Amino acid sequence: MSVIVLAGTIGAGKSSLTALLAKHLGSQAFYESVEESECFNL
Question: Taking the domains of the chain in order of start, what are their residue ranges?
Answer without folding.
Answer: 1-42
